[in-house]
Write a structure and sequence with these properties.
Helix content: 25-40%
Radius of gyration: 15 Å
Distance between the termini: 7 Å
Order of helices and strands: EHEHHEHEHEHE
Number of helices: 6
């Protein structure tokens, strides 16, 4: 499979933020492993990379009300350091002038991301969490007609089991979603 600059693919780096590291209740244990994979991909997508950030809404509505009742630590302003991109991604976005899309939803596919990548793009998805934001983004983008490739070793979840289950679900959507095992397959 060939993706990358030759076919105009966009690298989407999903939610590589402080909130998914360290002692956070939302920590992805293999965050650093996923980050290393993403770092290997970045040079191949110069001018075609977009970073995303999960942020809390100003006022939760609907099902988000009980969600933030369960996770009150996360109901902070999008300017809070909790929602900052981690290094080296914050610097990469700034230095390369890559767009950063912030959404108060798990899935990042929507009008803001589409405004960056266009209609029916080729997307290479990476980031966290495989079983939440990556999965939600992949399904919505595929439904909208995007060609989606998920790079397994450039993603991480709350556990290895959750990571593998999410990848298995996404594989069910072939050929709309392709899951490749390693950065080398992109």
């Amino acid at each position: 499979m060939s993706t990358g600059l030759s076919d105009g693919s966009w690298l989407v780096v999903i939610d590589m933020q402080q909130v998914f590291t360290g002692e956070s209740p939302w920590s992805a244990p293999r965050y650093d492993h996923a980050g290393a994979g993403i770092e290997r991909l970045l040079p191949r997508f110069t001018g075609r990379t977009v970073f995303t950030r999960f942020v809390a809404p100003d006022r939760p509505e609907g099902a988000w009300v009980p969600y933030y009742r369960d996770w009150p630590f996360a109901l902070v302003s999008d300017e809070d350091p909790l929602y900052a991109l981690t290094e080296p991604f914050a610097s990469a976005a700034a230095d390369r002038n890559d767009p950063v899309v912030a959404e108060p939803t798990f899935g990042k596919w929507g009008t803001s991301l589409q405004a960056v990548v266009g209609d029916h793009p080729r997307l290479v998805l990476t980031g966290v969490s495989t079983d939440c934001c990556v999965l939600s983004t992949a399904l919505a983008a595929a439904d909208a007609g995007a060609h989606v490739t998920v790079v397994a070793d450039a993603c991480a979840a709350g556990s290895d089991e959750d990571h593998e289950r999410a990848l298995a679900v996404m594989r069910l959507y072939a050929p709309l979603i392709t899951v490749v095992g390693t950065v080398g397959e992109v």
